[in-house]
């Protein structure tokens, strides 16, 4: 007994991480298929200690596949996700294509696993934006306790969120500075090495970027449409791991101690909050871990019922691959999908 699983985009950052996590968590798979574009045919993708030969997505038959994890961008999802869903596979899509589709559940299992029951409308479940996912893991238990009115979030997002080429660019630019070479920009609008860029995705007419809009829209869809949220999303010269500074205003009174105790018991959260040197988590410490780390919990005395918190998570894991696998696990636990 088990599930046939396909990973689309198996040679990319998120696809490789999906395979790692499926193996680490002993996902009940009887068969794993690694898929990518034709140029990747024959490459090796690792699933635990097992080597998988990458197959071409274009002519792959999804019949008999229980879960198809898509980690290859909106263009690939637009072309192939409906085909996989029609063949009977539950598509768990990491791209932005289906996130705001009213017929597609957008899910972080710690936040709104109950929405998975609606997956059958299109046989597709959407994975949220990486920065939204970790934020909502931290916000959900606080919202349940004291009802969030407003959030101001500033993100510090690593270059891995923009893919392999972006990571390579940070490395090349860093090296170029030390050896006094010219700085070449291809993936980012400005130099990323030893710099920060307040610009992720395209600019919208109101002056916000699409990344910032995603955080607003996805929070309303998954957590509560009444929450007011404003975001500033910034790319920073970190390879892996997104950080966020959250200022939260509540309807009810909540102290820092109460919030700390709530978050310590919350699923997916790990509180590291000592008011001393090194008593907090940075991206370096979160890489490779499943948890969403929360530090610097303190009261905001400038507003009534306000808190500030610091949230850090491995964006390739909870922000993408881990959340996708957890969606599949939740569907199995809820008996929405059963093994052959």
Provide an overview of this structure.
With 340 residues, this protein is α/β, with parallel strands linked by helices. The chain has 2 domains: 3-128 and 320-333, Rossmann fold, CATH 3.40.50; 131-314, Dihydrodipicolinate Reductase, domain 2 (2-Layer Sandwich), CATH 3.30.360.10. The protein has 9 helices and 14 strands. It has helices at 13-24, 74-86, 109-112, 130-146, 164-179, 210-222, 256-265, 283-286, 317-333; strands spanning 3-8, 29-36, 44-47, 50-53, 55-56, 67-70, 90-93, 124-126, 148-157, 228-235, 242-250, 269-271, 292-299, 306-313. The strands form 3 sheets. The protein has a 6-stranded parallel β-sheet, sandwiched between helices. The protein has a 6-stranded mixed β-sheet with strand order 10-9-11-14-13-12. Helix 1 crosses helix 9 (317-333) and helix 4 crosses helix 9 (317-333). The longest helix is centred in the middle third of the chain and has 17 residues, at 130-146.
